[in-house]
Amino acid sequence: MKLEALLARRPRIGSVTLAIVTALYVLFALNQSFWGKTFTYLSGQNLALACLMVGLSGGYVALFVTVSVKYLMKPVLILFILTAAATAWFMDQFGVIVDLDMIRNAAETSMPEANHLITAGFVLHMVLYGLLPSALVAWVRIRHRNFPRKFAYNMAIIVPCLALLLGAGLAQAGIFAFATRQHRDWFDTLNPIFPMVSAGRYLAGSAKERDIVAQPIGTDAKVRDAATAANRKPRVTIVVVGETARADSFQLGGYARATNPELSKRDILYFTDTSSCGTATAVSVPCMFSGLGRGSYSHGKGLARENLMDVLVHAGIRTEWWDNNTGSKGMAERIPYKELYRSDDPRFCENGECKDAILLDQLNAWLNSVTGDSVLVLHQLGSHGPAYYARYPDEYRLFTPDCRSSEFSKCHRDDIVNAYDNSIAYTDHILASVIDMLNAQQGRISPSMIYMSDHGESLGEKGLFLHGAPWVVAPAQQTHIPFVLWLGEEAKRRTNPACWAKQVSLPQSHDNLFHTVLGMMQVDTEVRNPKLDLMSVCQAANS
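Structure (tokenized):
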């Protein structure tokens, strides 16, 4: 009886009143990033700012009143609140934009990586801004009119609100259009509208992509001297796919700190002006292996064709992929594949994640097993944030104090940079170790290594952290990536040193990877573009 009496005393509220209150709460309490950008981009434009506030209020009220239907209203309002609260945390804390690629990246991440984002601060934020308001919506009793009266009453609210939105937009259309062209990230932070549209696009796209079958490419691929392969050393290329390494933090590219103490002592080529295909792993990795290039790549197009690894197989080359990240993003579906990130080896792994040294553990044994031309991909965990401190062992705490938390609000920015730089120094060690192992085998194989990061990282520049910004508005820190090439003695003899001296300072990109690996393995095929194959570009005259 007590429960029944308590339920009977629940406050009653009209459906339209609840819709209006919820709409204004979401618009003004859960849109800190959007309003922060708005006050910056419309600085000094007080009339335009007022029109935007009034117009968006009308638009949000119209939307929320539209869903004020019996049995539907509470679940939808709670969905709006929880979605807005969750996305607000990540946008406000890290400056990210929750677009289609960010949704895809989140959907494909691993639980250990996700756990670094589910911090105490996030939980408290969700309780205060998501669960408590949702509980209030669930608790109240809503007064609904019968359908004819509800329809008429709701339309009497919705139509004027839409007119208010339209009128406010037209009144300052020139200013809004100019600001939007200048700042394409502005309305992408409007919460939860843009994130929910992005999620809908992802779900719709995933449904369409489910039945896509990869079509063969490069079936004509052949190693140039395959007929005489028995009379030469096997060619071996290690492709290291980096994670979240930004060129701005590489000593090799001019960074003031000694983040590359080991590679600096190796005979390598470092390309100082290299750009990524995307700003998230789920975009960049399939793009760089697709051969389509950033200008032509889309997720659907990438799924609809084979990739670099398949072309190498068509050429008769042994291929393999070892992963210490969240998977190959479909690039290793038809070749031998090791999920090293699932290991529980205590030498390298704890809390469901492994340090990148696990990629080195079996490498010498693999090299010893090589009897023919071979390509091995090593996919790093690298510098994946926000838990940079978890990416390197204690002996690589070169820069201190280093942030030991996944909540950047608990750390000074300098400490965050220290932790990130430590992770880069550890990547430096991993790459130098791969080179040393290959170098030690030159008596029996002809080795090479190519390293590219999948994307870069923001470390507080312009208030942004992490990565995943839409490419068209992404800062250089997220798209300017490190690119390292090491050639063994035989591979070097096939190229012109003067050419390399020029190429290392010219613009390069992920577009080069597909074609350059084919060139390193001397694979001829119609899908190899010699202009993007740096080995062909710098081919020695007598080779």
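The chain has a mean pLDDT of 92. Residues 220 and 525 are 6 Å apart (CA to CA).
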